[in-house]
Specification:
CATH architecture of the largest domain: 3-Layer(aba) Sandwich
Strand content: 35-45%
Number of domains: 2
Mean pLDDT: 96
Length: 236
């Protein structure tokens, strides 16, 4: 996923009202960005952090600029995180189509946001072939603590609902996958964030035991491009 033009840079003043962030620019100017992230953004919204943002070029948008990347951590542990959760589905779809994610090859069609399940959900990606359906739920992972990436960064009832729906698909004879799109350059493994939402961690382990596959793929991030690059271990 290339940025054309490349992302612009600023310094974070504050994130507020969940979907807004104020930044300062190199010339001293100030700008309000749209913040496309509904989570807590733990460790990703410290004032003074360097941020990168895209420009929609649409003067009719109230906030035409969108926050995309942020520096996280300090010193040797400094890394980049991609906070735009809306990018994750497109990144994974692009990687599947390019043959990058080997575990999700062999399907003839990919559909997005398909209604399914008893709890009125939408699956992020539905992969289909004449022999099989594969339901893929995608989660954007940005929380790094040391070299470990954690999900979620806040309590998520919705996340547990998605796990229940995936379990049900396995019980119906389909394949179901939870895939962490790791938009954090500094982590080397992923884990459920039991210290933030123990119920989600328990639900994830239950889903895995029931046959839901759990994958994690890490992105390379820059002002020019984000792309899914490598698998990471998932430690349950």
């Amino acid at each position: 996923m290339k940025f054309d033009p490349p992302l612009q840079q600023g310094t974070l003043v504050k994130r507020y009202k969940r979907f807004l962030a104020d930044i300062t620019l190199a010339d001293g100017g100030e700008l309000t960005l749209h913040c496309p992230n509904t989570g807590s953004m733990k460790n990703c919204n410290d004032p003074g952090s360097t941020v990168w943002f895209s420009d929609s070029g649409n003067p009719k948008r109230k906030y035409r600029h969108t926050w995309e990347l942020v520096t996280v951590g300090k010193g040797a542990e400094q890394a980049l995180a991609g906070i735009n959760t809306g990018r994750a589905n497109g990144l994974v779809k692009e990687a599947i189509e390019a043959g990058v994610i080997g575990e999700l090859q062999g399907y003839t069609t990919i559909r997005s946001e398909v209604k399914y399940g008893a709890e009125n959900s939408r699956i992020d990606l539905l992969l289909e072939s004449p022999q099989q359906r594969c339901y893929v739920e995608i989660k954007n992972l940005t929380l790094g603590e040391g070299r470990v990436g954690y999900f979620p960064d806040a309590v998520t009832e919705r996340g547990r609902k998605h796990l229940r729906e995936l379990e049900a698909m396995v019980q119906q004879g389909h394949r179901a996958v939870l895939l962490f799109c790791v938009q954090h350059s500094g982590v080397i493994e992923t884990r459920p964030a039991d210290h933030i939402d123990a119920r989600y961690g328990a639900a994830l382990r239950q889903a895995h035991d029931a046959g839901v596959e759990v994958l994690a793929w890490q992105c390379d991030l820059s002002a020019e491009e984000i792309r899914i690059a490598r698998p990471l271990p998932v430690v349950l």
